[in-house]
């Protein structure tokens, strides 16, 4: 009987404040969708870091004849065979180095033509203008500075370049976008909490006569509060369900179908469905507990029970 009364009161409360209930559902749905999206964005960035950092190379570019005339780092002339052998031997001795690959001028010219064959500059370049280099795979991509310190400024070395620096700029941009999404999410959560508290107070005010009678007949505080708390929890749960549905639909249309980024950007290792599905219980739990707790603390002051 008591459970039936609580459930009937929940339905009455939701119908009486239909407009505000709808606003609560929408704000909770949007804020939790942003919350889930920011978590997935963090997973995506970490997945991309693990994938790309594992493929990062450090390149030691060697001086050629053209560099000897124009580059201060190559003032002593083009790299000699002895210098190349010594550089290779020193690289092989370093504990941070996993693999060393030599790229000749002809190979560098071939790779350049493959990547930038349509560039006007490509037609004017010759193989002897390209730089020989050592491509170094590190055991730990974070140890780039060890290579830079050992070889930067050395005779025969034009420059030491780390591909990780280029990726860091990309990941910095992605992290910035993620923090912006979190800031909007926090704002939406505040709006949702304010709407929940206001909705609960309006509902309590509209039923102040019933709650007054219940206090007079000795009803417990929890029994009086339960319908209001459940109203907020149900509205929040509906919003959380919509947020989960939005994330599933977004993953389906953006990555798998529709935009089909997984096919168009096959160099990016996108997060799988498991990453999305593991976030859904957290979103649903948050959508249930957040409105219930907000209603509980609002009612303690308002009803004074």
Automatic annotation (TrEMBL):
UniProt-listed Pfam families: FtsX (PF02687), FtsX_ECD (PF18075)
Tagged with keyword Membrane: yes
Record flagged with keyword Metal-binding: no
GO biological process, any: cell division
Keywords assigned by UniProt, alphabetized: Cell cycle, Cell division, Cell membrane, Membrane, Transmembrane, Transmembrane helix
GO cellular component: plasma membrane
Superkingdom to which the source organism belongs: Bacteria
UniProt-annotated location(s): Cell membrane
Segments passing through the bilayer: 21-41, 179-200, 221-254, 280-299
Membrane topology field: Multi-pass membrane protein
FtsX extracellular domain boundaries: 56-160
Membership in a protein family: Belongs to the ABC-4 integral membrane protein family. FtsX subfamily.
PANTHER family: CELL DIVISION PROTEIN FTSX (PTHR47755:SF1)
Function: Part of the ABC transporter FtsEX involved in cellular division.
Protein known as: Cell division protein FtsX
């Amino acid at each position: 009987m008591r459970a039936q009364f609580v459930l009937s009161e929940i339905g009455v409360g939701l119908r009486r404040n239909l407009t505000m209930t709808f606003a609560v559902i929408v704000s909770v749905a949007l804020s939790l969708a942003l919350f889930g999206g920011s978590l997935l964005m963090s997973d995506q960035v970490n997945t991309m870091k693990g994938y790309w950092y594992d493929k990062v190379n450090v390149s030691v570019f060697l001086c050629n004849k053209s560099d000897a005339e124009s580059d201060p780092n190559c003032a002593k002339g083009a790299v000699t065979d002895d210098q190349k052998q010594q550089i290779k031997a020193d690289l092989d001795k370093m504990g941070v180095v996993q693999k060393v690959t030599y790229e000749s001028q002809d190979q560098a010219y071939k790779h350049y033509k493959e990547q930038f064959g349509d560039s006007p500059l490509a037609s004017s370049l010759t193989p002897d203008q390209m730089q020989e280099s050592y491509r170094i795979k590190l055991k730990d991509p974070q140890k780039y500075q060890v290579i830079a310190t050992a070889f930067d400024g050395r005779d025969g070395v034009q420059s030491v370049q780390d591909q990780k620096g280029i990726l860091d700029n990309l990941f910095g941009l992605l992290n910035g976008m993620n923090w912006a999404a979190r800031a909007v999410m926090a704002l939406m959560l505040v709006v949702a909490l304010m709407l929940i508290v206001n909705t609960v107070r309006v509902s309590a005010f509209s039923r102040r006569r019933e709650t007054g009678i219940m206090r007079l007949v000795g009803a417990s505080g929890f029994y009086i509060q339960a319908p209001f708390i459940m109203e907020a929890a149900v509205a929040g749960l509906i919003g959380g369900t919509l947020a989960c549905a939005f994330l599933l639909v977004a993953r389906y249309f953006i990555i798998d179908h529709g935009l089909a980024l997984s096919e168009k950007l096959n160099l990016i290792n996108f997060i799988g469905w498991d990453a999305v599905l593991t976030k859904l219980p957290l979103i649903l739990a948050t959508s249930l507990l957040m409105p219930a707790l907000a209603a509980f603390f609002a009612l303690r002051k308002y009803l004074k029970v």
